Each structure stands twice: as structure tokens, then as C-alpha cells.
Amino acid sequence: METDLIFDIGLHRGEDTEFYLKKGFRVIGVEANQTLCAEAAGRFPAEINSGQLKIINKAVANAPGMLNFHINDKVSVWSTLDPEWAARNRRLGAESRICQVEATTLAALIAEFGTPYYIKLDIEGHDLQAIEGLAGLPDRPKYLSIESDKDSFRALRREFAVMVSLGYTAFNIVDQPNIMRQVPPNPAKEGKYCSHQFAYGSSGLFGAELPGPWLTADAAIEAYRPIFLRYALTGDDPLVKQYWIRRLLCRLGFGARWYDTHARLG
């Protein structure tokens, strides 16, 4: 394991990579959207020149090849390989355009750059397919995080089953809209200390610096039950159709939110 290496899968504009670089980690940033790769490259020229950051313009999937990528120009973080996610985006008023992108796998990235300490995945509906590529590898990252499914409890159970099969035994559920309130601990528990204000939509702290308890897989799945209930009531395709009732439910703490699941190798 390369203890100073992080894979940022779903680089976007480098919101998370900025934090990792400030903490002294080397970063492999992978992003399917060529325009966003160019933006990130313009943001970190010194780190690219020094070799601390390498940006790869590819998608990450469970097999290499050319794939359809749904680019969402209205909400760039909603760009996806998953046609069902693209259909959801369309229902929410954010149409996508399709282009072909080259896909790689986590196994191929690890073969080229080494096993990272942490992998952050946020690739809109394809996180699970990506981490399935870790199966069969002799070494795996100590930590990884994915944006968990919020529509299907069966899909959520499959996520945990895959992570457990890969050797991950402890899990931390992170409420993503609260990321902006996170404060890096001093002294640092990962890398070196840095002062940092997390941007909305970023993944935030990771590893030993995460707030909240580490849970078993069964306990983490149970913790997701009220999260799924809130999402079913007030999420993208809500059971509650009346807007004023949804507003009231949100004020009462039943608003839909999205969560990342962080996993720690046993």
C-alpha cells in the first residue's frame, strides 16, 4: 500500500483533491468529463508539474472499453454512465447529452500507480461497479468511500455485501449536506494538518479523521432505514406529492438527504 497516495475517482473540479493535496498526499484524479479535467488542470498547475497530482481523463467501470457517458451541463455533478440516473436527471429538469468515453478499472489504475491508502468514489450510480474491480487483487486500500444507493434497499444490501467480501469490516455513514460544517482536527490524524473550508458537495474528511461511529455492516444497514424512509417521502420521486406537506416534513426533520458510506479494511 502507498500510504501517501489517494485515488479521487470522480475528480469533478478538484474540490476533494484540493484537500488531499493540502494534507500532503499524492493524488490520482480520474474524471470522465474532458472539460472538468481541463478546469482541474488549470487549478493545480504546480502540483501537476511537481508530480503530486496526475489527472486522467477516463471513466471508471468494471471493465475497460468505450462507454456512453451522459454529460449534464446543467448540473455537472450529475454526469453519469448510468442511463437510469440520466433518466432521473431528465425527470428533474436536467437533460444530458451523450458522448463516448474510454473506461478503465480500479485494477488497472492500481497496476499502474500502486495501491492507494484511500479511494474516494463519486461517479453517480457506478460506484459499486467500480469497486467490484478490486476483487482478486492481493492488496486493497485501507479506506474507501462511495455514495450509497438511496432508492433500493436491496441495492444498498448488495453494496455492503460487496464491501464485506473485499475485506471491509467497519463502516461510517456520513451526511453529505453537513460536510461544510466539518473541521479538520488539529493535530491531524491523517497526513499533515491543514485549515480547510469544505465546499458544498465535497466528500469531506476521511479515514481516522471521520466524525461519528464506525459500525458493523449489519448496524450500518439498519442505520440506513430511516434515511431511506425520508428519501421515499420527500426525495426525487416522493411518495408525498403535495408540495406543502413535503415542506412541512422537511421542517420536521424528514427531508431527503444523500449519504456517503466509508469503509475500513478489517
Can you characterise this structure?
By secondary structure, this protein is an alpha/beta fold. The protein has one domain (2-265): 3-Layer(aba) Sandwich (Rossmann fold). Helix content is 33%, strand content 23%. It has 9 helices and 10 strands. It has helices at residues 15-22, 34-43, 45-50, 83-91, 106-113, 127-131, 153-165, 217-234, 243-254, and strands at 2-9, 26-30, 53-56, 59-60, 65-71, 97-104, 116-121, 143-147, 168-175, 259-265. The protein has a 7-stranded mixed beta sheet, with helices on both faces. Strand 1 (2-9), helix 1 (15-22) and strand 2 form a beta-alpha-beta unit. Helix 7 (153-165) packs antiparallel against helix 8 and helix 8 (217-234) runs antiparallel to helix 9 (243-254). The chain is globular and about 55 Å long.
Low-pLDDT sequence parts: none
Overall structural domain count:
1
Strand order of the largest sheet: 3-2-1-7-8-10-9
* Rg estimate, integer Å: 18 Å
The CATH class turns out to be Alpha Beta
H and E string: EHEHHEEEHEHEHEHEHHE
Terminal residue distance: 15 Å
Work out the helicity level. 25-40%
The major sheet is characterized as: 7 strands, mixed
